[in-house]
User: Fold this.
Amino acid sequence: MQIIRNAEIAIIKERLKNNPVVAILGARQCGKTTLASQFSSQWPGKVTFFDLENPLDVRRLEEPLLALEGLDGLIVLDEIQRVPELFPVVRVLADRSNKKAKFLILGSASRDLIKQSSESLAGRISYLEMGGFSLALVGAGKEEKLWVRGAFPRSFLAPSEAASYQWRQDFIATFLERDIPQLGFNIPAKSLGRFWQMLAHYHGQIFNASEIGKSLGVSDHTAQRYLDLLSGTFMIRQLRAWHYNTKKRIIKRPKIYFRDTGILHALFSLENKKDVFNHPKLGASWEGFALEETIKAIGLKDNEAFFWGVHTSAELDLLFQRKGRLYGIEVKYAQAPGFAKSMATAFDELNLTHLWVIYPGKKIYKLNQTTTVLPISEIAQLKL
Assistant:
């Protein structure tokens, strides 16, 4: 079974009209290569594909300028972070006056980790960050399966819960033992694995580098470096706190969420749906899943998504701006959420235009004129 990502295909097509290079960034195995293949099948001209994990393709590019300068049409470079010396070559070719070639480059690390692309291709490249499957892609009625198994295509589409769980365990081992060293980080797999596992217990909480570092016997700086690495490889989302002028003691440290709840469940050794429903982190897991799906549905970039909190315990799970106005999202794993005191505090303090409460139920209902309770199955309605 293959799910066609028509929305992303349309975005790539539009961006290649105005840019010689488009980069698709996302976690390993999230579907970047499949998306590139789907897009390439619709490309009207010639397509040349290089897989930089394939030794034969790497050998073809030993003299990159000679190999690429005679090509026209669409040139796809998959896993480009493995051969960073290609970035300056792509810049030279992108600057040619004849513009006979367009480049689609795929990477499994964020712009912060692929520094060569921002330095070499500034003004020539457009970035598209993608995740695994979303509710919009898998369709109605698949919310629970997507939550339990996660959004990685092979995990979601696996023939059984056991096969899905095994794929995720294998992914975690490969990520630690192969992918991280290939990015140039000399971090022992066991050390990063222990940190990742411990981080699972902080899912949905404020990150405390000192506390985690002390538990692992490493410095605050090392704990923060590990977190930034997992964030840069799209495993963890650091949700920044909203800063503004106020006399109240606001929370300033980021909250951390696993971007994929299937990986979270695998780190907790939860093999199936029953295990997930019996785990103490059930509510936190679902809330993280709903938050990530909401961010996808709205189309928020990392620098557009915030949470808000004050030390008197009032919090808002997600805060974002549109046309100068502030909007809020609360996520509740409850059958019939009501209007909480913290919501009233958020309205008073932030002057929200509207607040949505996302929950696992089926009915849409209003708590007041500016607060709407919305089933997670209906989050497509959040497009503003």
